[in-house]
Amino acid sequence: MKLKVLFAFMLLAFMDMSAQAPEKMSYQAIIRSSDNSLVIDAPVNLKIIVRQGSVNGSGVYEESHSATTNANGLVSLEIGAGSQISGDFSEIPWDNGPFFIETQVDPKGGSNYSIIGVSQLLSVPYAMYAKYAENVSGAATGGGGYSSAAVVSLQASRNIAAGDIGNTLECTKTATVTLTSGFSDMKVGETVNLEAHNGASLTVKAASGVSLNYKEGGTANFKSESGNVRFGLLRKSGDNAYIISGQ
């Protein structure tokens, strides 16, 4: 069965608020099948990979989970509390981001995983950063600290802009964003987070001479339903080339 994550988000809520900084964070995902139907009350195995730098960056931590979707197709787990495969969650260098959460799943409860989504971790939990900082030797330096991504409102069609880079486009009215040729403000490897809200449809369109997902003039569409949000990630892969995920 081909699966995809429709909606995955970091709650950034911690289950253990003791004197020590917690070393786990809550994560939820709604899983749908290829025909867009919810995967309901089904046991699934998931693999979580924390990647550094880009969606294809080095995997600094990897773990597996066994979970069961609920009546809404939702699975809930805690990153940092699964069966460790590689890396050490407590030693992730949160000050050296960005970081991305890659979700893989085997719907039959085995280890035949398929990638179903990659989402950028837009804000590193303070407690996580503080815990990491405690373990770093040497004096701290001022300035240059982590800053969270801005939310850029999108309510009308327009070209991609410098202010979108590294931030989140929040589409609340149906609109199209055009990827123009020669957009040098955005460097290869940089990303834009995409959100379509509450029934709005967000279309990303490549202009002439620009490729999207390896197709010149390609398009991608994120159609949200009322009361829901669709997520995506746009990454620049070449001078006039982009890839997009989350459809």
UniProtKB/TrEMBL annotation:
Keywords: Signal. It comes from the Bacteria. Residues 1-21 form the signal peptide. This is Conserved hypothetical periplasmic protein.
